[in-house]
Amino acid sequence: MAAVLGPIELPGWAWERAEVRRALRTRDMGAVFRLAQQYAGASQSRIAAAVGMTQARVNEIINGRREVSRLDVYERIADGFRMPDDARHLLGLAASREKRSGGAAFDLAAFPEVVRVYATQSSAAEEIQQQVREASELDVLAVRGLGLIGLNDSLLRAFLPREQSGKGLRVRVLLLDPNSETLVQRAAEIGESAASLADGVRLTEARLRELADSCDIGVWRYRMLPTWRLMRTDSTLFVGAFDAGWEGHESAMYKVVETPHGPLFRGFRRMFEAIIDAAQRAV
C-alpha cells in the first residue's frame, strides 16, 4: 500500500530568511519551490504531492514557464508547506486561526493586494499576456480598446480564440459609447476629434464581432466618464487610469490580486459589474 505523503516541513528559521519572505511577498512561487528544495530537501515530485499539482506543473513553475495566480492554489501551497501564520500573511492569505474562525480582524497591510507596479502598460505586456493565455475569464474596461483588443497586433487579440486548444475563454469588453456626450468630453481631454474617437470605438466593436464564432465574447457600451482602465484575468487585475492629457496605456499599471478580505480587487470587480449592468450590449 502506497504511503500517504503529508505536508513538507521547512525549518522554522527558514521562514524568517529574507529571500523566503521576499518570495512570499511577491508571490513568486517558483522561488518558494526552489527554497523548499534547498531548505527541506524536497524533490519536485514531493512538492507536487504536497501541493496537489503534477510534477510537470511544479517544474514549469520552478523554471519560470508558468505563474500561479489563483487564490485556491496559493492556499494549497500554504497548506502543503504548513506555512506559519506570518508567512501566510505575506502571501496574502488568512492565518490558520482566521480560516478556522472565519474572523476578519487583522491588519490589511499584511495582505498586500498590489503585488507589482509597472511604469506603463508596455512594461506589463508580457505578464498580462501570460495571464490571459491561462485564464478562463477576461474582463476589459477601456475607452476605444484598439491597442488592447481591437487590432491584429493589439495586446490581447491573439490570445482570444481558443478553438485549437479547446479551452473556453469568456470575454466581456466595456467600451465608451461612441454616441455619448462623455465621448465628446473625453476626446477634448486628449486633444482628439470626437469623430475620430467614435470611429475608433466602432472599429473595435466591428473587429470583436468577427470573433463571435470562435470566442465567447460580449461587448457593451457605457456612458460614464472613463476613470479606470481594467483588465481582469480570473483572480488578477491590471489597473491603470485615464486622466486629462493622457490615455490609459500611458498610465502606470498596478497588478492587483484577490486576497481573502482585501477591498481593492472586490471593489474594482463590483464596479465593473455595476457598469456592465447599466451598459448597452453592442456585440
Automatic annotation (TrEMBL):
<dbReference type="GO" id="GO:0003677">
    <property type="term" value="F:DNA binding"/>
</dbReference>
<dbReference type="Pfam" id="PF13560">
    <property type="entry name" value="HTH_31"/>
</dbReference>
<protein>
    <submittedName>
        <fullName>Helix-turn-helix domain-containing protein</fullName>
    </submittedName>
</protein>
<dbReference type="InterPro" id="IPR001387">
    <property type="entry name" value="Cro/C1-type_HTH"/>
</dbReference>
<dbReference type="InterPro" id="IPR010982">
    <property type="entry name" value="Lambda_DNA-bd_dom_sf"/>
</dbReference>
